[in-house]
Target: Peptidase S8
Amino acid sequence: MRSERTNRADRTKKLARRGVPALLSAATLAVGGFIAAGPAGAAPAPATPTASATVPTHRLCAQPAHPGYMACNAVARTDVKQQLSLKRNAAPSGLGPADLQSAYNLPKTGGSGQTVAIVDANDDPNAEKDLAAYRKQYGLPACTTANGCFKKVDQDGGTNYPAPDAGWAGEISLDVDMVSAACPSCHILLVEAKSANMDDLGAAVNRAVTMGAKYVSNSYGGPEDSTDPASDDKYFKHPGVAITVSSGDSGYGVEYPAASQYVTAVGGTSLKKGGTGARGWTESVWGTSAGGEGAGSGCSKYDAKPSWQKDTGCGKRTVADVAAVADPATGLAVYDTYQSKGWNVYGGTSASSPFIAGVYALAGTPGSGDTPASYPYSHANALNDVTSGANGSCSPSYLCTAGKGYDGPTGLGTPNGVAAFKK
Model:
């Protein structure tokens, strides 16, 4: 039997034969649409405007050291001044919990006793302190280690935390804040993998499930590989657990693990207040028809199509399943102080994945033998159908262009309450 190390080495050789070096420059990766994080302690990617057509941003995570490493799918606005503290009665820039509860018709209560796990690489030394600042600002109940609401562990379930990393710390802040916004009464379990390698991240997913989490968010991705179904899908095959994965921030194209048949792949939208309908908010695809930025989508090359997906333009797994706000131009208020200066506006499908995990938690415990990714397909009429926008050019067009019913960038749509996420 071939070892996983041999498989990873083969991936590197295959990329080399294609003319892809093991270490790419950040500029090259930005143009190519993929930035992944390297080993623990790697420096953040340069603050280069790459992620939004309308606002200057930079991606939070470092460039990859070699294949097999994942990128966090978070981007930060660089035109919004960071602030450690706010003036009296001032509000942070970006959307807050009340905005998201309004836009997605979410209950203000619910989820008590449910645990949402966040899986990320590297350590955020300030995670609990920054979470406290976010929740205090918005009047959410305290979520601390002392009161049993917050827990941070390494991928082995202990406290031997990995090396800190500024990029992944920003990702962690975004994740825990978005779970808080969706489900203020939920407990949060942060599991920190020792590196951004898929095997370490996968071990962290397994750890989260072992520790009892029924909802696990993964805000990272990398290029698909032919070995994914055999080598990596095992990390996400957990019946009775809702596992969400961000679809990517590089526009049309498929990332793994969003391509896994066992996860809910979460795309992204631009969310704006206003409009003529009763909802009071409007949404479109995050991205442009030119491609290269925005929510990821498309047809997997390798992963099998789950039985609940019925679209006919893709014989394998289609990405995404559902969506939520991700555009940094309509981004989220996040508090992050590890090598950052407090209040920021972040976006990316790293925002939508933990948010949807929180919505699943509001909806209630999944059936013990279920794959909860199937639930929205049984309740599509309980979602907001996003019908405008595109994240690139493709054929068939629904894989990259929104329309009535299912489409790649936003899946079946965005939450309208929690009914679509119930068993």
Notes: DSSP finds nine helices and 20 strands in the chain. The domain at 71-421 is CATH 3.40.50.200 (Rossmann fold).
